[in-house]
Amino acid sequence: MKIVTYNVNGIRAALRKGWIDWLKELDPDVVCLQEIKATPDVVPEVLYLEQLGYEHYWYPAKKKGYSGTAILTKKSPKNIVYGCDHELFNDEGRVIRADFDDFSVVSAYFPSGTTGDIRQQVKYDFLDHFQKWTDELRLEIPNLVLSGDYNICHRAIDIHNPKSNARTSGFLPEERQWMEDFMDSGYKDAFRLGNPDPHHYTWWSYRANARPRNLGWRIDYHLVSDPLVEKIKSTQILSDVVHSDHCPVLLELE
């Protein structure tokens, strides 16, 4: 099974850049989208998704043109869960989950704290809540794939300039420690299991010609619960895919 996570930074903008053609060529089984910034009624291309064999489940934010997640899948889920039992994060469309027979896939869009202290605190609140929510979920469903834009670089290897960004939201010590503790609670970073080398990123600023110079951040992940680790076949960052300021990450499970 091929699972892709992709922050498209606006699904309509990505579609104008040939996103459907890319999807058809890659042909993943499950696609976890973040920052869709749209409701399906304003995306006529959903008909093409259905023609390609995808069921599509959308969880847009209440605020138009903001945030939101979605899951596309060629395998019919037995259950779809919208939200994570938290009013604010549900209003922002932060988490959607698809349950299959043997495992569940979550598409999550973690808040950014780059606009200031208020949103940074919202981010910390989300991290605390996400840990508790997944702790409870794992008691029911041990096999989890937690895919999405975490808006955190875990370690220095995951950012192009760790020294200058040491006090920047997304690379703060508290955020990085949360990632460490979260993975210690029973998850593995699927990409890092087979890719220990530096200079692999999933997001680049639009400024300073950052992407051609590969001055990026790795903030998009597939975190896989420990019982599923033996099923990982490969993980790839598809950095040449350019529909967004992020790029997709592909996980293949046996």
Automatic annotation (TrEMBL):
Enzyme Commission code: 3.1.11.2
Site (Interaction with DNA substrate): 246
Endonuclease/exonuclease/phosphatase domain sequence ranges: 4-246
Keyword vocabulary terms for this entry: Hydrolase, Magnesium, Manganese, Metal-binding
Cofactor note (record): Probably binds two magnesium or manganese ions per subunit.
GO MF annotations, alphabetized: DNA binding; DNA-(apurinic or apyrimidinic site) endonuclease activity; double-stranded DNA 3'-5' DNA exonuclease activity; metal ion binding; phosphoric diester hydrolase activity
Family, as annotated: Belongs to the DNA repair enzymes AP/ExoA family.
Taxon lineage: Bacteria, Pseudomonadati, Bacteroidota, Sphingobacteriia, Sphingobacteriales
Annotated organism of origin: Candidatus Sphingobacterium stercoripullorum
Protein name, entry field: Exodeoxyribonuclease III
Cofactor dependence: Mg(2+); Mn(2+)
Matches recorded under Gene3D superfamilies: Endonuclease/exonuclease/phosphatase (3.60.10.10)
